Amino acid sequence: MKALSSQKLDDVLAECGFFRTDSKERFHSAMSKRLSSISQSVIKAKTRLKNALVGHLLLLVQQIEDYDKQVQKIVDETPNGSIFRTLPGADYILGVRLFVLYSSREFVSASEAQAFWGTCPYTSRSGSMVTIGFRRGCNHFGRNTFHQLAFCSLKSSQWAKKQNAKKRKEGKHSNHALRCIANTWVKITYAMWCSKTPYDESKHLASIANHIINQPAFILGG
């Protein structure tokens, strides 16, 4: 590691998921220090421990891979099991989570689903006072699933990218912007589940354009 250039070290750290500047600085500082002398007995003991841990990890990885294959097989054989895998950025795990969410509960509307999964804020009224706040009482598994979908869709969904940029420009923090996108995804996935049709980005973009055109300000030229 000491023989590697600074840029190469940064590349290695990036591959391992270290992107924070302070973390990289601490690593570079540690690598610049003089190497300490370690006895051969300690090296042998730690090597045996490492080999034992790696053996357990390899077995665990194999078991997880077998488990994933079984889950994927069940989903592929289930009617409408793969419908949510057509969503941008959704792998089969995220698709399964969405399938379980919609299969385990029925909703009369998309707004009910949004409230149940906590992607929309709550509104409290008392006389003339109206309070809008973060919805804490909800199905947290559902909110986490749609939050992940919102994040994953940023790479391949045109409207999600634009909505995220718009919300951040309005001053909303990243989690708030993702909740706004997740709230839209609940509406979309609810329609997909009701009609049992896969996702089509072009249809959704056409729906957005039609909604904008029908706005009074657009019609009046304002």
Describe the fold and architecture:
This protein is mostly helical. It folds into three domains: 1-36; 43-77; 80-219, no CATH class. It has ten helices and two strands, in the order H-H-H-H-H-E-E-H-H-H-H-H. It has helices spanning 6-15, 21-32, 40-77, 92-103, 110-116, 140-153, 158-169, 174-195, 201-213, 216-219; strands at residues 122-126, 129-133. It is extended, with a radius of gyration of 24 Å. Mean pLDDT is 85; it is low at 217-222.
List keywords for this structure.
single chain; 222 residues; mainly alpha; 3 domains; two-stranded antiparallel ribbon; 2 strands; disordered C terminus
Itemize the secondary structure elements and their pairings.
Layout: H1 6-15, H2 21-32, H3 40-77, H4 92-103, H5 110-116, E1 122-126, E2 129-133, H6 140-153, H7 158-169, H8 174-195, H9 201-213, H10 216-219
Antiparallel strand pairs: 1-2
Helix pairs in contact: 4-6, 5-8, 6-8, 7-8
In short:
This protein is mainly alpha-helical.
Mean pLDDT: 85
- Beta-sheet strand percentage? under 5%
> How many strand units?
2
What is the N-to-C order of secondary-structure elements (H for helix, E for strand)?
HHHHHEEHHHHH
Largest sheet: 2 strands, antiparallel
The number of domains is: 3
Point out poorly predicted stretches: 217-222
Query: Biggest sheet, strands in spatial order?
Result: 1-2
Estimated radius of gyration = 24 Å
Separation of the first and last Cα atoms: 62 Å
What share of the residues lie within helices? 55-70%
Q: Give the class from helix and strand content and strand pairing.
A: mainly alpha
Q: Identify the overall geometry.
A: extended
Number of helices: 10
